Each structure stands twice: as structure tokens, then as C-alpha cells.
Amino acid sequence: MSRRGLETKPRWSDVPPEVRHSVERVLRSRIARAERVFGGYAPSATFRMRLANGRRAFFKGSYPLPPESQVRFNTRAEERVYRALGERLARWAPRFLGSIERGGWHVLLLEDVGPATMPPWTASRTRRAAHSYAAFHHDTLGARLPRWLPRRAHAEFAGFWSRLAKTGELARTASLAGRRRADAERWIADALPALRRGETALRRLDPPFALLHFDTRSDNVRLVGDRFVMFDWPFASVGPAEFDVAAFAQAIAAEEGPTPERVLQWYEEILPLRPRAIDASIAGIAGYFADRAWRPPLSGLPRLRSIQRRQLKASLSWAARRLGLPDPEWIRAVPD
Fold this sequence. Notes:
Blueprint: E1 2-3, E2 8-9, H1 17-27, E3 31-36, E4 45-51, E5 56-62, H2 75-85, E6 96-102, E7 105-110, H3 123-140, H4 160-167, H5 170-175, H6 181-200, E8 210-212, E9 221-224, E10 227-230, E11 237-239, H7 241-254, H8 260-267, H9 275-292, H10 304-323
């Protein structure tokens, strides 16, 4: 395997011949070219393929990892979503073309929706994405969805601030600010009651609920005209649309796109949001990143902590504005 950037990803020559031949059988064409794709934070085997019959397809595969790796592939869960919900997701997900399991490899074959389109998150792209994202949630709001989809995934974000306070690990979060650590500790101590009240409300949010993607970031989406296409579906769940859009909006801000307030304004041109649910969601999301951003790097995921620190800065700043807290000036001292 070779390296471009930080993640080590398999080259096409690393894919076992029996897997490549199986791909050709499923797609009913010889593979003329396979271009390795980078962009996400995990070392999945990902290729854009041009077929001899002129068509294109996308290859996403998991494979045997060394024992020391801390990577956990979720290919099986993602395939279940494509197979069970493919028709409902047709406007917002790549078409599922088939799968292969051979020699420890598990490959999903998908519609190729093109190269990365964001960042940059321009105002025009963000508005189109927000409109399509709202239409996605609106389409399943209150709908009957498979029972095996989790219903309480959003509520798992309801206890991070409380746990960090109980364990004393809020000091680790504050330590990210370096020389401004004392400022961070004072701010967190003053803000903690409001943040805990906010996150706790996640457990009490009422339906109607929608289908949630639960991992909507630039590396998991493409914008094709006005079509907002999401892939990487293993964490799909049922819950408040506000949680999905709050996570999405702060992720855009973390990549120097429009403010979360602007994203919500565009989203609400299609689907109204409940302010209390947004407040609870962003408090819980900020707590998640406060818990993750200071932890040691994970083997095989070298950029993960960096994006989590950037999202901590975006989400906590927004949470402060939503909850009427002072500006956390210390957060700007946290390195990417």
C-alpha cells in the first residue's frame, strides 16, 4: 500500500485478483481504469472506476487490517441501509449496484456521483445543499421506517458534559487552549450548567422524527446540480431532524463555510425547525467534541482528532450564541 496525504489506502494493485474479477462479473464489464479516491478520514479502499462499456461505478471496500489498527469498518451496516432503503433514498444516495465478499474483503459497488464538490462551501452551494437536505428530512418526517433502525442514537449525546464534569476530564478539554487554559477552565465552569441543561433535553425531544444520516460532512456528500447526494450510511437512525442539521451546520462552519445561523435559515425555507431541539442538539454535539478532541490519536485514523478539534471550535462557539453564553474567546487558541 502507498500513501498520499496521511491515510494509508490500498492501491488498485493491492485489491486481490479474485475481488477484481468478481467486481467485473457483478458489473458485467471489464474495468478499464480504477482511480484511487482520497478525502475521508478512514482508510477504506475507495476507487472511481471507468468500465470498458463506457459506464462508471464506485468501489468502496473494507479489508483485513493489522491487529494493532484501531479502525472499525462498518460496511455491513451500510449495505443493509442501501438494500432496505434504496428506493426511499433514491434522490439523496448513490444507486446501489451490488456487493462482494471474498478473502476478507467486503465491497460495496455504487453509482459514481463524481469528484468532491465541497469544500469550499460557497453560499450558492451551501444554500442548495441545505434545501435538498431539508427535503430529505421532510420526505421521511413521521414516516414508518424499519424497526431495526436505532431510535435513540441522538439521545446518546445527552451526557457528555455531565460525564466530563464527573470524571474531571473537563480539565483535558481546557488544556487544548494551551496558554489560555485558565481562561478555558473559568469559562467552562461558568457555562457548564447551561450546557448540561441543554444536552439533557435531547432525551426528551418529541416526535415527529425523520430518517437521519447521522454523519453528514463534506467527505460524505456530493452536490450534483441541486441534488445533494449522501453516502456512508452505517449510522443511519430515526430521530429529530434538528440533530442532523445541527451537526451538518457546525461541520460546514468548521470548514470555513457560511455560519450555522445562515445554514439554518436556508434549511427553514423548506422545513421549519424547533428552536428547543436545535439548542439541545448543539449542546450535545459540542459535548461530544469536548470529550473527543483532546484524546490521543487513533492508529489508522491520523486526521480524526484534528477535524474533531475544528468541530469543537465551531460547535461550542455556536452553542454559546444559542444558549446566551459569553463568547468562548479561549477556543480560538485551540490548534487545528
